[in-house]
Design brief:
Blueprint: H1 3-29, H2 34-59, E1 69-74, H3 79-87, E2 92-96, H4 108-123, E3 127-133, H5 135-145, H6 153-161, H7 164-175, H8 186-206, E4 210-215, E5 222-226, E6 230-236, E7 244-249, H9 252-264
Parallel strand pairs: 2-3, 3-4
Antiparallel strand pairs: 1-7, 2-5, 5-6, 6-7
Helix pairs in contact: 1-2, 3-4, 5-8
Length: 267
């Protein structure tokens, strides 16, 4: 599939995500006020119109927004480009992700650079707002993310611990002189990952990053918006082997939509 087709498919999927997210939220909030519901539906129609324009552009060769909306990479290979975007922040960075420690397990070296970039922006006196899971949601989702929330958790952990990502994670810390003991069992592993998350939150807060632990469920997509004019976002593709796919955009309509989602998540 060419670039035009990939962008069109992604925008179609994004349209579905945006519509479902906002209509569920607005109908809930306006359930006791008809006028509020009508206003919500009007707002939703405006968002849907924006998405329709984006999809139309993506499917018309003469209007393909290749220069403003581009495929980046699958996770965690998207992290270097994400770090570069963060480092270029001028005034404000808004982030919505599942964890503070984005890629901390899958690519710890890249995560260290990502975290350093966030701290660097805050050190320049710029606003960095990061929304992530609440503590309880983080614990529940952490076990689920690794497939360790089922009766066969120990078997799943044994298989995971034999894999290259697991081995690379512990090798990284040994190589930088911070050797970690391999957890004895799935619950100990989840606790180690949660400690990484807590450490990340505390470190970023101590360096001036505003970390809001307020998400109670998995966000429909992950978002990083720089200066309200450029954004990276990632979603999971729909396949038997889901992968997190990242794209970057300077399309003003799409950046505005992503900002709208970011502002409403966790509230």
């Amino acid at each position: 599939m060419n670039t035009t087709g990939k962008i069109a498919l992604l925008l179609m999927f994004l349209a579905t995500v945006v519509s479902a997210f906002f209509m569920a939220r607005w109908r809930s909030e306006a359930s006791d006020a008809r006028t509020g519901l009508e206003a919500s539906e009007k707002h939703a129609k405006g968002l849907a119109d924006d998405i329709a324009r984006l999809k139309a552009d993506a499917t018309q060769p003469n209007k393909v927004p290749d220069s403003t909306t581009r495929y980046v990479e699958v996770f965690p290979r998207n992290v270097p480009a994400l770090t570069k975007l963060i480092e270029s922040t001028g005034d404000h960075l808004a982030v919505v992700a599942d964890y503070c420690g984005y890629a901390s397990y899958s690519a710890p070296e890249r995560y260290a650079e990502y975290k350093s970039a966030l701290i660097g922006v805050a050190a320049r006196g710029k606003d960095v707002d990061l929304r992530v899971y609440k503590e309880r949601a983080a614990e529940e989702m952490m076990a689920r993310q690794f497939g360790l929330d089922k009766p066969n958790a120990e078997e799943a952990y044994k298989a995971m611990s034999a894999g290259p990502i697991f081995k690379a994670y512990f090798a990284y810390y040994e190589n930088i002189g911070k050797r970690r003991s391999i957890p004895e069992g799935s619950r100990a592993f989840v606790q180690l990952m949660l400690k990484d998350e807590t450490d990340c939150v505390e470190e970023l807060r101590s360096k001036g990053v505003k970390v809001l632990r307020e998400l109670t469920s998995q966000p429909p997509l992950f978002i990083w918006i720089k200066d309200n004019n450029q954004a990276m976002f990632s979603v999971y593709n729909l396949s038997s082997d889901p992968k997190e796919i990242a794209m970057i955009t300077e399309n003003s309509t799409l950046v505005r939509l992503l900002g709208d989602i970011s502002a409403n998540l966790g509230q």
